[in-house]
Amino acid sequence: MRGRIVLAVIFLAAFILLFRVTILAGEFDAVVTAAQFEKASETHTTLRAFFRRMPKGGDLHTHLSGAVYAERFIAWAAQEGLCVDLENVVLAKPQCDRAGARPLSDAMREQKLYDRLVNAFSMRDFLPTPAVPTGHDEFFAVFDRFGAVSGSRLVDMTVDQLKLYDGENVQYVEFMVSSWCPNDREKFSSAVAGASEDAAKLAALEASGLAECVAGKRNDLAAALGKISAALGCEADNTQAGCRVTFRYIVQIYRDNTPDEVFIQTATAAALIRAEPRLVGLNLVGPEDYLVARRDYTRQMEIVRFLAKDVPVALHAGELWLGLVPPPDLTFHIRQPSRSLAPGASATASRSPSSATRRACSRRCARGPSWSRST
Ligand SMILES: [Zn+2]
Fold this sequence. Notes:
The chain contains 18 helices and 9 strands. β2 and β3 form a beta hairpin. Helix content is 53%, strand content 12%. α10 packs antiparallel against α11, α12 crosses α13 and α13 packs parallel to α15.
């Protein structure tokens, strides 16, 4: 009898031990990672190294030109022989003989000028002044300062960012970029201005060559993707830095334009997204607190609802706060689009993607193989 009891205790102990080992085996990675995290937390440097290696999933909100380092813009502008207007620190096309303008190439030999440009093309060392009292104003002003070079550098900017993302173990990214047809601008503006209803505006755009504009942009994108692949060397070896990151683009629409201009850009973006799988959504960009964006917000949502009911939409949220705008503005900028847009749409905070966005990402990520494998 005593022997049976001892045997039963041994069996029970063995069962409990096996059970605990099974549980621990299932959580082995988490236990090891938690221990490494605890250890890494001891200093700022080791914690930073830990987060750098940590798998990141996807970055669903990155403004491509806003993510590139100022030093890269300076180098590209110098290559292109651009000038800088020293009064406003804005890049300009080659007219260096104008008063107050200097060749960008000077900055490659003169540290003080170089530092001034880096600070002007980024938020580095920004301090509020009476002329630029907030980081908000400085942030939005910066884009125009390097616009003369960023507009033609889609390939270089994408390559730069893919390498950085790869180094930080990011698997997927959606870059916000402009994609429209500036050569058709006048023609499209006249067509839309001549119609009163949205359906008539869209019909007028289509009759004015929207499909040709879209075909041209698709060709441009295909050429750019080929150059990106070549620059990364993915065809020969897809373990090269940048090749492991799947990427797509989101077409941006500038929200501080007239309603007709927003209509044209939204119609173009929606048509592009339908035609081109690498374009996975559209987003309105620019200061949401500016006069036009506030005044036309409801109209802009109507335009998006009409033109983009069948394509993914991501909208900024959380960019307005009490003190920046009157209280009524804080009551509908999230509620209105979330009620009126298609189920795939999501309002996203700039630095904190919502769960709706993450769900949208999983669908998009599942659309196909990664870029490096599919080209
Ligand atoms: Zn944003």
